[in-house]
Amino acid sequence: MNVITGYLKDFASLIFPELCQACGDSLVNTEKHFCTTCIYQLPYTNYHLVPDNRLAKQFWGRVNINAATAFLYFNKAGKVQNMMHQLKYNNQPQIGEELGKMFGKQLKETFPYHLAEAIIPVPLHPKKLIKRGYNQSETFANGLAEILQIPVVTDLLFRDKAAESQTAKSRSSRFENMKTVFKALDNQHSYKSVLLVDDTITTGATLEACAFALQEIGIKEINIVGIAFTE
């Protein structure tokens, strides 16, 4: 029966091949979501191994962040942009989950990320969540959680209102624009250390605003984890 099922799967893949979400090439049976070539060639930051990395430095003097890392570098017209587009706009939540699992395997043995008590994804505005059907940052968080065995908490931080357009704003203006967007509820579980998770990190203004809200309810150690970082 397994042999027959295998033949049928192979036949179906010839007609409806599964494609790599990074480069668009057909996947073989042993590949899932991304081809082996792309997995080896993706632009990994390895920031989790460098405490004073470039992303972490973006928050210095702005908000008290314990540590910060991102899995990949984001380059326009590159493979990472293709992946992020599929994740956010083409109803492919499994991409976020798979990337979370991949990065989780690296963070599992890395201080201080593996010591967090909760994983908190940056929330979407309710209208955008309804339109998209899922929060892409939460899918990434779910993948991380599966490997790290740390719970995902989605009822602590919420988006109170939609932000104004960030286009043409300076970094300080972006933070002021975002500062009142996010609210945090009472910290009933008395979390002290969390992973604050986002998809693509550019200026970090959104994460600064989220961290500011979480610190107001007594969360002292906030560790930033992103899928991709735009240098």
CATH architectural designation of the largest domain? 3-Layer(aba) Sandwich
What is the total number of structural domains? 2
CATH classification class of the largest domain: Alpha Beta
Largest sheet: 4 strands, parallel
Counting DSSP E segments of at least 2 residues, the number of strands comes to 6
What CATH calls the topology of the largest domain is Rossmann fold
Count of helical regions:
9
The CA-CA distance between the termini, in Å, is 51 Å
- How would the global form be characterised? globular
Could you name the ranges where pLDDT drops below 50 across 5 or more consecutive residues?
A: none
Rg over C-alpha atoms, rounded to the nearest angstrom: 19 Å
User: Percent of residues in beta strands?
Assistant: 15-25%
Structural class: alpha/beta
Largest sheet: spatial strand order = 1-6-5-2
Give the proportion of residues in helices.
25-40%
Order of helices and strands: HHHEHHEHHEHEEHE
How confident is the prediction overall: mean pLDDT?
A: 88
Question: What's the oligomerization state?
Answer: single chain
InterPro entries: ComF/GntX_DNA_util-trans, PRTase-like, PRTase_dom
Pfam families: Pribosyltran
Protein name: ComF family protein
Family: Belongs to the ComF/GntX family.
Plain-language structure description:
Belongs to the ComF/GntX family. InterPro entries: ComF/GntX_DNA_util-trans, PRTase-like, PRTase_dom. This is ComF family protein. It holds the Pfam family Pribosyltran. Residues 137-225 form the Phosphoribosyltransferase domain. There is one protein chain. By secondary structure, the chain is of the alpha/beta class. It folds into two domains: 1-41, no CATH class; 43-229, Rossmann fold (3-Layer(aba) Sandwich), CATH 3.40.50. The chain is 40% helix and 15% strand. The protein has nine helices and six strands. The chain has helices spanning 2-15, 36-41, 54-59, 79-89, 93-107, 126-132, 136-148, 171-179, 205-215; strands spanning 67-73, 118-121, 157-159, 182-184, 193-201, 221-229. A four-stranded parallel sheet has the order 1-6-5-2. Strands 3-4 form a two-stranded antiparallel sheet. Helix 9 links the parallel strand 5 and strand 6. The protein starts with a helix and ends with a strand. 40% of the residues are buried. The mean pLDDT is 88.
